[in-house]
Design goal:
mainly alpha; single chain; transmembrane; cell membrane
Length: 323
C-alpha cells in the first residue's frame, strides 16, 4: 500500500508539473506574441549574440526543446541560417538551467500565492495583456504546486529499502545517464527530469554524483524532440538538429570521463548550499562549461557539417541571411 499511495501522489504532482510547464510556455508565447521569432531573426548576426539570444529566449520560455524546435522551423523556412542556429542551440543549453535554479528554492508551500494572483488577473482584468500575464503567474504557481506534491510524495521513500537501494545504484554514472535519458524521452521534458532529481536530492535519496548523472541523461533525452522535428526538413534544418545531438553527446561523454573531479568542483563551489542548490548549480556549471568549450570551435564545426550534409543545388539558390 505505501507504494501505491506514494505512486499516485507522485503521479499527480508530475502531471500537474508537466501541465504547468506547457501552460506557462503558452502564456509566455501569448505575452511575447511574434517578438520571440523576431528576436531570433534580428539579434543573431554574430555567434556571441546568437548565444545570448538563445539564453534569454530559453529562460523566458522555460524550454530548450521549444526554442530549438522553433529555430529548426526558422532555418527550414530560410529565415535563419544554420550558422545562426548553432549559437542559439548553444545558448538554449544554458538558458534551460534557469528552471533548475528556480526549483531549488523549494517554495512549493507558497504556490497558492501566485496562483491566486494569476487567477485574479485572469478573472478580473479587462485588458488582454493583463489576462495573459495572469496566465503566466498562474502557471508559475501550478509549477511550484506540482513540485510540492512530488516532494510530499517522495518523503516516505527514505523508509523503503528497495527504493533506497535502487537510488544508490544510480551513483553508477552510466546507469544514471540511461535512467535520466529514458525518463526524459518518456516525459518529453528535461525540465521535469531535472526537477524530480532536485526533489529527490533534497530528500536525501539521490547523491550529488547520481543527480549529476541523471541530469546529464536528461540532456541526452531532450535531443529526441529536436531530432524528430528535423525529419523531412531542409538539409540546414537537419544539420541544426544533429548539431544539438552532437554537442550534447560531446558534453555528456566528457562529463562522464570527468564526473569525479566535476562533482568535487561543485562541492567546493557550493559547500554551504543545500543538496537541491548543489545539483541546480551543477546543472548550470555543466552546461556553461560545455558551451565555453565548444563555442570557439563552432565556426569550424559548422563548416565540417556543411561539407558532410551539403545543401541541395536548389536550396543554394534561395536567399539566406548572412551569419
Amino acid at each position: 500500500m505505501p507504494y501505491v499511495k506514494i505512486g499516485l501522489l507522485m503521479l499527480a504532482g508530475l502531471v500537474l508539473f508537466l501541465f504547468a510547464l506547457n501552460y506557462l510556455a503558452e502564456g509566455l508565447k501569448a505575452v511575447s506574441g511574434e517578438k520571440m521569432q523576431e528576436w531570433l531573426r534580428k539579434f543573431t548576426r554574430t555567434l556571441v549574440s546568437s548565444i545570448l539570444v538563445g539564453v534569454i529566449v530559453t529562460t523566458l520560455l522555460d524550454s530548450s526543446s521549444a526554442v530549438i524546435i522553433m529555430t529548426i522551423a526558422l532555418v527550414n523556412s530560410r529565415a535563419l541560417t544554420f550558422r545562426q542556429a548553432v549559437g542559439i542551440v548553444l545558448g538554449a543549453n544554458i538558458g534551460t538551467t534557469f528552471s533548475s535554479q528556480l526549483i531549488a528554492f523549494t517554495i512549493g508551500q507558497w504556490s497558492g500565492v501566485p496562483m491566486a494572483i494569476g487567477l485574479g488577473l485572469m478573472v478580473l482584468a479587462r485588458r488582454e495583456s493583463f489576462v495573459q500575464w495572469g496566465q503566466v503567474i498562474l502557471g508559475f504557481g501550478l509549477l511550484f504546486l506540482g513540485l510540492f506534491l512530488m516532494e510530499e510524495a517522495v518523503e516516505p521513500l527514505n523508509q523503503l529499502p528497495r527504493v533506497v537501494d535502487w537510488m544508490k545504484g544510480l551513483a553508477d554514472p552510466w546507469r544514471g545517464v540511461l535512467a535520466g535519458a529514458g525518463v526524459t524521452v518518456l516525459l518529453q521534458s528535461s525540465s521535469a527530469t531535472v526537477g524530480m532529481s532536485v526533489v529527490l536530492a533534497g530528500q536525501g535519496l539521490l547523491t550529488l554524483g547520481a543527480g549529476i548523472a541523471v541530469m546529464m541523461g536528461a540532456e541526452l533525452g531532450t535531443c529526441a524532440d529536436t531530432l524528430v522535428a528535423s525529419i523531412g526538413r531542409t538539409k540546414a534544418a537537419v544539420r541544426t538538429g544533429l548539431f544539438h545531438l552532437f554537442f550534447n553527446l560531446f558534453s555528456i561523454l566528457l562529463g562522464l570521463l570527468l564526473i569525479g573531479p566535476f562533482t568535487d568542483l561543485v562541492h567546493a563551489l557550493s559547500r554551504q548550499a543545500s543538496a537541491e542548490r548543489q545539483l541546480a548549480n551543477a546543472h548550470v556549471l555543466f552546461n556553461a562549461l560545455g558551451v565555453l568549450l565548444v563555442a570557439p570551435l563552432a565556426p569550424w564545426l559548422a563548416t565540417q557539417m556543411e561539407r558532410w550534409i551539403p545543401d541541395s543545388q536548389t536550396s543554394r539558390k534561395q536567399p539566406v541571411l548572412s551569419s
